Amino acid sequence: MDYRSKFAAALEDLRREGRYREFADIRRKSGAFPRATHFTPEGERDIVVWCGNDYLGMGQNPAVLAAMHEAIDLAGAGSGGTRNISGTTHYHVQLEHELADLHGKEAALIFTSGYISNQASLSTLAKILPGCVILSDADNHASMIEGIRHGGCEKRIWKHNDLEDLERQLSELDPDLPKVIAFESVYSMDGDIAPMAGICDLADRYNAMTYLDEVHAVGLYGPRGGGISEALGLIDRIDIVEGTLAKGFGLMGGYIASSASVVDAIRSYAPGFIFTTSIAPAIAAGACASVSHLKTSSVERTIHQTHARKLRDRLVAGGFPVMMNDSHIVPVLVGDPVLCKSLTDELLNEYGIYVQPINYPTVRRGTERIRLTPSPLHDDDMMDHLVDALDALWSRMKLRRAA
Fold first, then answer.
1. 25 pLDDT higher than 80
2. Are strands 209-213 and 179-184 parallel, antiparallel or unpaired?
3. What's this model's pTM, rounded to 2 decimal places?
4. Quick check: bond before 175 cis, omega within 30?
């Protein structure tokens, strides 16, 4: 067996399809978000990041940075172990209290990433509830799909955001079986929002638990940043909320918030929690400061939404094929993986604008796109530069504009 040739062939398949992913070597500039330095073999250059998930720029917030510096001075670098073996520091305890309070739940549990929080929590739910059936939205994130698969329970996939299909499938199940409806609030690639009230109504009608991924909404929506469920006044009807510290809150890590018994059961049974070193104290301290700040400050959320609407309106006026939605995410359809990669390469190399191409398997073939994420700190000059660059490249590459 020529192992090396097998790997080379697999990579060549990706390149041929236009799906080979390249990483931009960047260093964000503290205090100058969203500016960054791009490192290339030819040298360094200044760029503006338009595709980041630090939606509010909280990774640069002075209060967050101060909390992290203080934690490093007091506790050092790493946590020193898993949560069971010396890795439960006071910073982790404080952060879990903040997160439980944010979502109006009895308890919360921190994981090393949002991916792990979904994978570990959903797989553990399936194993704790004998005969469990998990009904998963067709567009759920890979981490949710993996968690459900790993749980080994019966899985049903309902059409994306389709309440009629969800009810049809619920009605076919034995009323006595435990059921979990798993869905997201904001779907990150299209930017559309789940019909949450209708899902909760069906969960009540068919005695199902609700598991809500608020990853792309926490910090960004609701009076205190609790997400779409808080904004709609539905948090009491959600059994388990899953979120991240890596997007709206600007750090890293994931979490769930729920009743004390649910959190304790997942804490006690989930291998993805039990056998993983906990996040560093400085990260927990910074996240705690970020969550606390956004509970009382709506300035970032207000400007963020204003900038998202402004950019979307400008792109629509320019005839770009914007994929419309009601969230802060601004996807623009390209529809071809090779052209999508060429477009983003030119944006970076010619204009100093960093946008990643979004290709299969992240999105369906034929729906390749760029995904723009304006923040409160993207100013008008940056927006002018982006729109002008896209206009020039769209014409030069003969990309399709909206009718």
1. yes
2. parallel
3. 0.96
4. no
| Catalytic residue numbers, as ranges | 247
For 98-147, what is each residue's pLDDT tens digit? 999 999 999 999 999 999 999 999 999 999 999 999 999 999 999 999 99
How long is the chain?
Answer: 403
